[in-house]
Amino acid sequence: MFLRELCLNNFRLFPFIELEFGDEFNVLSGMNGQGKTSILEAIHYLTLTRSFRVNDDSAAVRFTSDHFDITARFFLNPAETNNVRIFYSPGQGKNFFINGKKIMTFAEVIGLIPCVISTLDDLKLIFGAPADRRRFMDIVLAQTSSIYLQDLKIYRQILQQRNALLNSANRSAIRQQMDGWNKQIINYGAQIIRRRLDFVDFLNRHLAGFYSGFTEQIEQVQAVYKTDIFSMDDSFDPAEIEKLYGKKLEKMFDIECEKKMTLYGPHRDDLEFYRNNKSTRQFSSLGENKIFVLCLKFCEWKYLMTKKGQKPLLLLDDIFAELDKNKCQQVFSIMQEMGQVFITTTGQNELPQSRAIKNYIIADGEAHAL
């Protein structure tokens, strides 16, 4: 999978630019505020249908325009290409096209072109809220399974309806209707948890391998899925998860009625990280945590490659500025086999010299290949 050509029209600072990318390392250099990150954002739109920076699509429209238009050509293999386009205007909303055909639902797009992005905001995986870590798992799993994406969508709809029921005043009416809602939320919730556990198991089989590339000694690193539904010592068989889930909801019925919301399920679960059996949040330095989250992103890339059978695009937004020269070299060495990589940087001297690197200068709303 390669992104060969990218065209931006009225996107962020760019009135119009066209770029042709190399198959390996593509380095976008320039001063802050010149639009380097916007190019990664455009690629993210094409692969995951949304920005990684803002929730409001209108924020990506160039200030003098009423729309943005992003088009690209992806090479799936030497004989097959996909022409992908995303068009947005406040009046028409967001529209996605593949080879000229309009895609009716975004679920058809997600996972078609697997993509991993790493930014300085990744530290939220360590220091942020549980929702940040759930989002990390959900984005990865949605790219590998349309079933997971559909289960997640249905689960959220059921959760909304169940919460509305819990918010009603009549507890006896709640009790009469709750069994039906419990069966549904347990069914979909258990499937979500099962897939998340599989992903966490994958992390734990590969995380140490990546992390050891940055340390002089062997260290134990681990991801632990946290849920109040069952103990991590319990069986992870789907049927057993459903059984434990049902027991928890029945036991906590009165508490949920008092709180008027669903207190248990994958929407409340979390992911915790440990280094040498100590919480990375509490006991690791900022530098160690920066390397840790980068290794999580490398694991995400490997998971997508394993499940999709093709190398995902890897987008790195200004992460080399936070690393010393030795760490930069180690990161670059790991990425040698990772296919097409896009890197933003304020200075090319942060990266080692390589004939595999194609450089671009981004300035004043324009992009120039060197």
Proportion of residues in β-strands: 15-25%
CATH class of the largest domain: Mainly Alpha
Topology, number of strands: 15
**Protein structure class:** alpha/beta
What is the CATH topology assignment of the largest domain? Glutathione S-transferase Yfyf (Class Pi), Chain A, domain 2
* Series of H and E elements: EEEHEEEEEHHHHEHHEEHHEHEEE
- Helices, by number, come to 10
Report the CATH superfamily of the largest domain. Answer: RecF/RecN/SMC, N-terminal domain
Mean pLDDT value:
92
Textual characterization of the structure:
There is one protein chain. This protein has 370 residues and is α/β, with parallel strands linked by helices. The mean pLDDT is 92. The chain has a six-stranded antiparallel β-sheet with strand order 2-1-4-5-6-7, with helices on one face. It folds into two domains: 166 residues, P-loop containing nucleotide triphosphate hydrolases (Rossmann fold), CATH 3.40.50.300; 195 residues, Glutathione S-transferase Yfyf (Class Pi), Chain A, domain 2.
